[in-house]
Automatic annotation (TrEMBL), chain A:
SUPFAM superfamilies: P-loop containing nucleoside triphosphate hydrolases. GO terms for molecular function: ATP binding; ATP hydrolysis activity. Gene3D superfamilies: P-loop containing nucleotide triphosphate hydrolases (3.40.50.300). It holds the Pfam family ABC_tran. InterPro entries: AAA+_ATPase, ABC_transporter-like_ATP-bd, ABC_Transporter_VariousFunc, P-loop_NTPase. This is ABC-2 type transport system ATP-binding protein. Residues 9-234 form the ABC transporter domain. It comes from Devosia enhydra. The keyword ATP-binding applies. It comes from the Bacteria. CDD domains: ABC_DR_subfamily_A (cd03230). Keywords: ATP-binding, Nucleotide-binding, Transport.
UniProtKB/TrEMBL annotation, chain B:
It comes from Devosia enhydra. Keywords: Membrane, Transmembrane, Transmembrane helix. The chain crosses the membrane at residues 20-40, 60-82, 116-143, 163-185, 197-217, 268-286. Signal peptide: none annotated. This is ABC-2 type transport system permease protein. The keyword Transmembrane helix applies.
Amino acid sequence: MTAAAEPIVTVRGLKKRFGRTEILHGLDFDIPSGRIYGLVGHNGAGKTTTLNAILGLTDYEGEVKVLGRDPYRNRARLMEDVAFISDVASLPRFLKVSEVLDLVEGIHPKFSRQRAMGFLEGTDVKPRAKVGNLSKGMIAQLHLAVVMAIDARLLVLDEPTLGLDITYRKRFYRRLIEDYMTENRTLLITTHQVDEIEFMLSDIIFIRDGAIVLNRPMEQVAQTYAQLVIADGDRAPAARALGPIYEETRFGQTVMVFEGRPRGQLSGFGALSTPTLSDLFVALMERPSGARS
Amino acid sequence: MKTTLALMKREYLEHRGAFLYAPLIILVLFGLSVAGSLFTDRVDMAVSVGAPTLGKMFEVGLVVMGGLWWAYLMAALFFYFADSFSADSRGNSMLFWKSMPVSDLRVLATKALSGALLFPAIIFAFALASATLLYLAVTVGAVRLPTLAPPLPADALSALANVGALALGYLGLSLLWYAPFYAWVGMLSTVFRRWSMPLAFLIPGIVGIMENLLLYGSGGPDGGYILSFLRSRFQFGFERGEMQGALFSDTPISAPALLSSLVETIDWTQMGIGLVVALGFIVAASEYRRRVLDK
């Protein structure tokens, strides 16, 4: 593997314990450059702990390499090439907007104040405003402007839009895609609002109870999983015999999700489509444990 | 260097209330008090104390003011260290600071550096401003009391230079002497936040009491080794009566003489050990901060 093709993030056998409880049970995954990864799971599934390990914020068992470095030992050096938002409300409230920009400009060698100011143009975030007096949405805009003005190779977003209204959330993701992402940049994002980020993801990882249950490029998801909606109840038993991984009833129709089943075998039973990420998430989360893809 | 200056500026912005606004208010109140006293008969009181000349009064005033500013700084620094070492987690902002390419040790070392250099420098500047006010007061006092001659500007400058140098030397040495105490409060703050303030006294107090309970009657100093060591470690300054002697003598204060005397009284081995211990506390605090993600 050439240096250029080396993954941005390599995780092997990642385990994390809090006391006697093991939270992560040996995760393995790579994140190549230029991709947009979604990390999705229930509350307490281990998403934030995984991100914290990648960002060098917590110790762990196993091996984690980010840009070739051990993040826990080299967090400070790593943060020159990695930017993250772990909580929209984490900007220091005692500072004014201009003071935040001054500070980051003084600390971060890859921060461009001019770019940050450019991102803030047209928003309600004014340089003389105190962060503590801004609304949650405006703080999110400011934080996003700050991290987007850092020339980082990896951007990690952990629930970046939590608590924001739909307008801010849409604007947030649009800005990220239009103004930030390039082929040299990699994005890793977790959120509960899976449907809102589905359009931008290149890859998806589902995590359940500290273990990965799905790790696929989005195009493979469409090839692997199929959703069948059966209006005629008499056809359901025959479809069920093909082994759906999930089944539910919606408005009198039977909905089944299949894994690895050729679409030709399913098309005769009803309307066939690719499940949305939220449908697939529900299907895989409710699947009996141990069946992992 | 750019990073250190940016982090120090952040400390200034966060704690300017204690080191800029509050001293400014004190200075304004002092100015108003001086102005008020000059326009009342209270000036006569100063004369009745028996100060020989206005020049000496000015010098004594400088020393007293320097002492008061020093006491203010020492108290403010205690609260600063008790607050700043855990301030990054305030308002859930620890994750923001952790996203910056700065190690935990560097962040805490910069906080300590701000407490050792930046804030003392600001307070020293306020002390100099107070000195100017005092000179004005003495000069106007001389106009109100024509029997007393005001200090000549050259004499006043000489007094200011001597007392200023003395204050600077005393300040620097006392900060070095008390460094382990401030670092101790800072380290506790990293773990216990605001509870570090009572714990800074409570922990050594309890350990000292336990020593007394366990080893009572086994000899040793009065109050036990720990408490008597801490008592001696808290003592800093001139030999008894030395400063008073200099203040009430007819000759002007000599900074070199007093400072060399102060340097001789310092236990330099203890000073060195204290600085190493202070460094150890800061490193321990940074390791805790690195390992425990305290949002």
